[in-house]
Structure formats: structure tokens, C-alpha cells
């Protein structure tokens, strides 16, 4: 079957790839970059300035890109979900029966569906395969041969033991962009350590700088190290696809939690690397800007930031403390940082005198950054959140109507809309075997009967 798939693939796809990025958009599975394009029609190609083809008003940038997704939990699924939002066909590979680990993470559940799983798996198809069975591994190789991107988040070497490592897949699919997401990287002294968000956040220093002043380290309320890694992987996959447009060759992309979070330390890391300035926990405050933090009000909290002297003077005016802005101890940000405690004590006492809504009214239109600390109910009642389309609703086959956070970016030439709901375990197994790989019904029945694959029947 594998050779048949490879044969179909190479004979039916366009043999040409552009030699220069930007001169032509072609589907990404063109395997021969040695000649200039001679098949613009079959490749749906467009020369620069030729205008869009008929019906291309809402063509998404990754339409025609197929992704084989062997990731679980958060970082990988978050990356592939974002790619799916841009039009990629995402084939999610799951263990028969239990599926992705997060399918059991709860409560809360909607019916039998984990809300955690639902949050990061829209716009995907699910195929349930026993990867440890040689026949299952063979199916994955066949799928890799007709996919553009292979994403996995196993401990380094684990997939190679099953013949599914990068070197194995590269031999049969040299066009593949193979993205590995791990805790610490493919090599090195910690490469075999399991990768978990909280641990990587600790090792990378994020927990060291997060928490109340003089208090204990605090884990961020959402798995930011996982999510940052997912966004790095998302961007790296896009970059690798662009590189393939130039060269015709795939590559291995190595993403890991530790590197992602250390890179995100930005100015905190730079302070140490250049000035040997060790960081500390500041709660909601900022090490280098004062005032820039949350203040307790009569009934809640408000965050106010004064990034320059004019903004600080405005804050003092709103708080009816004009004498503070002219005080030599607070005349500029450097002085305010040096005299932080005294200044914050004065401001904090004044903020306690009014309710949050009253302070919001007073700050409205002043030009100073400010805002309340919202609960989830308040977040999803916020008019700007609603206006930005950050609630995405779908009809799930068993859970009914569900809602998840929407896509963060808007595009002028296409819409990220009408998502497909997160799949059930193995919901698309038969469709993928038949439609993508061309398996015959009798072979599919044998695979189902032997437990190599599984199909979830809809109610």
C-alpha cells in the first residue's frame, strides 16, 4: 500500500515548484523544484499582480495544506488548531478508546466531553490508530507521504523506535516539515525528561518571577509555557513551509518548552545577561516602571500604568493629588522607582476610597492605560471582547452547542469562521483511510476487526 500511495502521489501532483518566494503560490506537495512552473492551472498558481482566481474571495492561506498531528494535551494541539483555523486539513492521530489524554481531564465535562479537550481541538479530523502495531505504524507512514506537515510531542527517540522518527519519515517523504515538540529539546542532558508546563516554567525561571512580592512562587493561571511553545511551533511550521517553497525540501523543526519560555523572558533575561541584575517577584507591579500595577479599590481592583511623566501627572490629577506630581521624589520614572514604597502607599490609600466603577469613569478618556481585573463572566461580557469575535460557537455531535475562545487575529482578505467542532475519538478513521489513502472496504474491515484502527460511530 505504501508504494502505491507514493506512486499515486508523485504521478498526480504538480511537478514544479517556484524558485523564488512570492512569485507563485502553489500547493505545498510539489516535489520537484528544479524547473520553473509549467502547470499554473493544475497548481492553482498566480503570478504576482494577476489578481485572484474566481471564487477566491475567502481562500485561506493554508487551504490545501495537510497536517498529520500526533500531539496530545496542549502545546501541540494549540499549534495545530491555529493552523487549522487558517485552512489546513488537520488529521489528529489518537489512541483507540481513550484518545488524547485531555479527553479525561475534568470536570467540567459537557456530557462525556472534556471542556479542556474541546478548547484546543476545533477544525480537526480524528483517526484512531494503534501505533504500536506494525500495521498501525505503516498507516502513519502512508499518511505522512501524502501530508505536508508532521507534528509530534513524544520524548525524543520514542517514535524512532516505531520507525516514525524524522529520519524514517524523511526517507519516504523528503518534502515533509516534521515538527517535534518536547520539554527540553532533541539532545542534551535533559532531553529525556518529560515535558510538563509547570516544571518547564520552574526550570526556565518563570515561576521565580511570578507571584506576590515577598511571597511564594506562583504558577500562572493558564499554562503559558505550553501556549508559548504552541505559538512558536505554529510560527516555525509556517516558516518551514515558506522555506520549502524556496528549496523544495522539508526539514526537522525542534521546539521545546524550556527554550520557548527562556526566549520569552526578554527584558528580564537581558537585565541579568547585561547587568547581572537578578530578578524577583513583584506581584502585579513592574520592576522598571512606577506606578504600573493593580490597586485595590473599595470593592475590587483596577490596574493603572503610567509609562511617562505626563501620564503620571494625569494619574495624580484624577486622584486629586496634584502635589505628588511636583514632588522631587517622583519627578521622573527613575525617581519613582527609587521611591516606590512611599509613592505606592499614597496611591493605594486614595484608590481605596472609591468603587472600581467610579475610578473607571474618572479614568475614561484620560490617555492613561487602565482597566479592571475582570472575572471570566466580566471578560465575556466585555463589549470589546464581543466585538472582536472572541467567542466561537459550534454544534458538537454529542455535547450539543459549545463555545470556545475565538481566533486572536483578524485578516482583511479572509475570515476565520464556521469552524468544525472538535472530533470524537476516531470519528473520521474510515473517511481518512478510504478518502485520503484509497483503502478498500474489505481492508478497512480487517483493520477495524483486528483493533489496528477504531471508528467512532455517531449517535
Question: Please, could you describe this protein's structure?
Answer:
The chain is α/β, with parallel strands linked by helices. Helices cover 35% and strands 14% of the residues. It has 18 helices and 14 strands. Strand 12 and strand 13 form a beta hairpin. The longest helix is centred in the middle third of the chain and has 24 residues, at 224-247.
Topology:
Layout: H1 2-12, E1 66-70, H2 75-85, E2 89-94, E3 109-110, E4 113-114, H3 115-119, E5 125-129, H4 134-145, E6 149-152, H5 166-172, E7 177-182, H6 197-203, H7 224-247, E8 251-256, H8 257-263, H9 266-275, E9 292-296, E10 301-305, H10 309-318, H11 322-325, H12 333-338, H13 340-351, H14 356-363, E11 370-372, H15 376-379, H16 383-387, E12 391-396, E13 400-405, H17 429-436, H18 441-450, E14 453-454
What is the share of helical residues? 25-40%
Number of helices: 18
Q: Poorly predicted ranges (pLDDT <50, ≥5 residues)?
A: 1-51
* Strands, total number: 14
Characteristics:
single chain, 459 residues, alpha/beta, 7-stranded mixed sheet, 3-stranded antiparallel sheet, 18 helices, 14 strands, elongated, disordered N terminus
A few lines on this structure:
This protein is α/β, with parallel strands linked by helices and 459 residues long. The protein has helices at residues 2-12, 75-85, 115-119, 134-145, 166-172, 197-203, 224-247, 257-263, 266-275, 309-318, 322-325, 333-338, 340-351, 356-363, 376-379, 383-387, 429-436, 441-450, and strands at residues 66-70, 89-94, 109-110, 113-114, 125-129, 149-152, 177-182, 251-256, 292-296, 301-305, 370-372, 391-396, 400-405, 453-454. It is elongated and about 85 Å long.
Amino acid at each position: 500500500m505504501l508504494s502505491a500511495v507514493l506512486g499515486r502521489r508523485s504521478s498526480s501532483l504538480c511537478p514544479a515548484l517556484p524558485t523564488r518566494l512570492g512569485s507563485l503560490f502553489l500547493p505545498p506537495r510539489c516535489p520537484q523544484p528544479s524547473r520553473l512552473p509549467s502547470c499554473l492551472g493544475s497548481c492553482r498558481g498566480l503570478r504576482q499582480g494577476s489578481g485572484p482566481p474566481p471564487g477566491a474571495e475567502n481562500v485561506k492561506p493554508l487551504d490545501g495544506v495537510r497536517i498529520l498531528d500526533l500531539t496530545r494535551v496542549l502545546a501541540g494541539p494549540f499549534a495545530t488548531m491555529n493552523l487549522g483555523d487558517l485552512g489546513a486539513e488537520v488529521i489528529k492521530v489518537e489512541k483507540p478508546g481513550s484518545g488524547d489524554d485531555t479527553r479525561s481531564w475534568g470536570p467540567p465535562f459537557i456530557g462525556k466531553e472534556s471542556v479542556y479537550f474541546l478548547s484546543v481541538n476545533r477544525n480537526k479530523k480524528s483517526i484512531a490508530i494503534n501505533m504500536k502495531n506494525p500495521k498501525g505504524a505503516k498507516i502513519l507512514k502512508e499518511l505522512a507521504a501524502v501530508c505536508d506537515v508532521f507534528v509530534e510531542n513524544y520524548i525524543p527517540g520514542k517514535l524512532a523506535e516505531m520507525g516514525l522518527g524524522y529520519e524514517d519519515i524523511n526517507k519516504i517523504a523528503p518534502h515533509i516539515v516534521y515538527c517535534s515538540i518536547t520539554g527540553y529539546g532533541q539532545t542534551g542532558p535533559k532531553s529525556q525528561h518529560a515535558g510538563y508546563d509547570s516544571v518547564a516554567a520552574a526550570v526556565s525561571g518563570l515561576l521565580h518571577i511570578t507571584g506576590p512580592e515577598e511571597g511564594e512562587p506562583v504558577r500562572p493561571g493558564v499554562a503559558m509555557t505550553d501556549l508559548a511553545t504552541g505559538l512558536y511551533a505554529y510560527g516555525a511550521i509556517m516558516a518551514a513551509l515558506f522555506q520549502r517553497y524556496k528549496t523544495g525540501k522539508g526539514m526537522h523543526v525542534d521546539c521545546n518548552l524550556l527554550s520557548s519560555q527562556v526566549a520569552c523572558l526578554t527584558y528580564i533575561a537581558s537585565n541579568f545577561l547585561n547587568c547581572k541584575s537578578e530578578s524577583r517577584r513583584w506581584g502585579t507591579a513592574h520592576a522598571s516602571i512606577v506606578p504600573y500595577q493593580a490597586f485595590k479599590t473599595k470593592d475590587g481592583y483596577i490596574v493603572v500604568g503610567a509609562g511617562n511623566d505626563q501620564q503620571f501627572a494625569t494619574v495624580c490629577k484624577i486622584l486629586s493629588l496634584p502635589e505628588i506630581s511636583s514632588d522631587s521624589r517622583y519627578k521622573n520614572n527613575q525617581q519613582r522607582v527609587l521611591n516606590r514604597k512611599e509613592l505606592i502607599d499614597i496611591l493605594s490609600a486614595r484608590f481605596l476610597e472609591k468603587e472600581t466603577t467610579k475610578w473607571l469613569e474618572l479614568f475614561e478618556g484620560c490617555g492613561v492605560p487602565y482597566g479592571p481585573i475582570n472575572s471570566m463572566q466580566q471578560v465575556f461580557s466585555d463589549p470589546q471582547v464581543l466585538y472582536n469575535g472572541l467567542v466561537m460557537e459550534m454544534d458538537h455531535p454529542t455535547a450539543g452547542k459549545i463555545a470556545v475562545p475565538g481566533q486572536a487575529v483578524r485578516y482583511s482578505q479572509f475570515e476565520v469562521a464556521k469552524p468544525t467542532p472538535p472530533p470524537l475519538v476516531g470519528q473520521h478513521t474510515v473517511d481518512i483511510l478510504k478518502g485520503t489513502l484509497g483503502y478498500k472496504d474489505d481492508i478497512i474491515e480487517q483493520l477495524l476487526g483486528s483493533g489496528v484502527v477504531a471508528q467512532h460511530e455517531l449517535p
